[in-house]
Amino acid sequence: MESCMDRIKRDIENIAIITATPQKGSTRFSYSDEDRRAREYLFKEMEKLNLEIKVDGAGNIRAKYAHGNESLPSVILGSHIDTVANGGKFDGVTGVISALELIRVIKEKKVQLKRPLELIVFAEEEGSNFGITMLGSKILTGKFSLKDLKNIKTYDGITGYDVMSNFGLDVDSIGRDVLKRNDVAAMIELHVEQGGILDLEDTPIGIVKSIAGMRTYKISLKGVSNHAGTTPMYLRKDPMAGASEIISYLEEAAKEHALPTTVGTVGKILCKPNMPNVISGEVNFYVDIRDVDPQGIEKVADALLNKTNEVAKKRGLTSSVELIGESDSVKLSSKIIEAIESSAIEENYKYKIMNSGAVHDSAMLTNFTDVGMIFVPSIGGLSHCPEERTNYEDIKLGCDLLIHAVIKLANE
Ligand code: HGY
Ligand code: MN
Ligand code: MN
Questions:
Q1: Residue 205, helix vs strand vs coil
Q2: Is any ligand 1 atom within 6 A of the Cβ of residue 363?
Q3: Considering only the top CATH level, what class is 4-212+329-410?
Q4: For residue 68, what pLDDT is reported?
Q5: Measuring CA to CA, which residue among 263, 266, 255, 276 is closest to residue 221?
Q6: For residue 67, is pLDDT > 80?
Q7: Is the CATH number 3.30.70.360 carried by domain 213-327?
């Protein structure tokens, strides 16, 4: 008979091989062929558990274990299976598979529950298609409308509405499926930490108290494209040189002029015509600013906007700064923190109460219900890269703790 850990490992490894970049990490964008194959794998596992499965217009999978009193609000579990490009195999998938395993164990051990459980696999958490993180959970909680979906585009210009329709989803129905407050009694998401604190402190469990807020900006600089050899330096209007000034300044602003918890990143830059012997005419780059304290985000965003205007003026460039996505920092529920912490103490697990620098779908449900998160260590603190690793023993421990806490919450 397979053990829990065998099953967890089998599921995570089976999903990990569904990637567009074999040997180079997990690349499984929502609404891609890889996404479809991973979903089919999960549907088979959910059907074995007789879960009631439905998929909403944004592609969020909602699998209900309607054990217990159907009329009572559910306890929600889950996470996401989409990835960044060349990401890790544990980000998101660990939480989905732990939730699946929890339902297997509850059924096998015939644990009596008062409330139903609902496993949600949120779509487009990473924002890899449109640059907007947690899109599926924003739609599920009514934070993103059908009209908004028609206004966002992939990097090659396809609207969110068309991407989801082409995937076979009934996008027009998203308004109908928005979560209602009394649908939900609580939510717990298990996730890999994606930072190095738990690993460094040799602590197997993190209990999350706050999730960072974030803003994603698209900065566009336009200058004069010209010959790299014949154009004297003093005659240039070079947006790449301008971008480099702004990007270095972002690092300084986040390091020196904000808070210790503030971070700023530019991980994506597009240049036209992108030729070594041509001064670029246009450069677009994406800025990711985060902090658990909104003040930190505010400080860096203001400094960035001022710097962009100053550099554009000095270099004779035209510039635009567009806010393409944002989410507030949230404090998680003391009730859920307490439920997880008391379970950890009962089971004698070493744990740490901590913040999350990564954003998570759970953050989108905090204005609906009591929300908590359990972290398990990321080895070396690596994530969003092929080297992302978590020990299966730690995932099993995290899953055990999730089971303890969920049984408490589902029997309240
Ligand atoms: O970017 C994040 O924090 C998450 O992994 N989407
Ligand atoms: Mn994630
Ligand atoms: Mn991620």
A1: strand
A2: no
A3: alpha beta
A4: 65
A5: 266
A6: no
A7: yes
